[in-house]
């Protein structure tokens, strides 16, 4: 792992491959609160690396081993971090962005503002940054922070889900109780919805059939001009960790060939 300074923060970065030899780069962006780069390290990252891609993973601001500032958690801060990190790493060619949950929202926001630097976006259980998304996320984060004030919560989590899950929750408590993340997400810079129709980047959105987000697949295909969706049956929001043996090949096939089918032509809305 590498410690990398960018934008006044120190980021924890893991790179599988050295970025040489003309290999394409896949950047993996994790979710919010209880997540960090390890969710990729133990799922799809090795598969991408074995296939010959340069793989970049990093802990987002406030998460894992990256600096946790007290403020600055709008969606634009997270996607701005991604731009700075790619510059610091010397990644100049278009990258494939894989985002899980909140990470997919970050990836899509980055693609909207830096389309020339993105080869494709792969969203797993994610949605675009909209006003409705910002208010929902802010409410969820604030609600989680309130629940974690109860001293009975952590012992119950450890007893029910184990020490690893309890450790992740302890990390998220520091983020939720020690920063303004809930307020900052609510005040995020939200793109105008009309801007999405001009996004000239292939997008694959993967949902678990049992997830509340699965119902937005039709809407997303109508919103984004080059978008495909895929539903994984028998799984919910944690589909990436729950079935990496299904999601991994799906994402790899998209990066290899699937995204090329959406280049140069708008996908008709069903």
Automatic annotation (TrEMBL):
InterPro entries linked to this entry: AB_hydrolase_1, AB_hydrolase_fold, AB_hydrolase_sf, Peptidase_S33
UniProt keyword list: Hydrolase
Domain called AB hydrolase-1: residue spans: 25-147
One annotated GO molecular function: hydrolase activity
Record-stated family: Belongs to the peptidase S33 family.
Protein name: Alpha/beta hydrolase
Provenance organism: Streptomyces polyasparticus
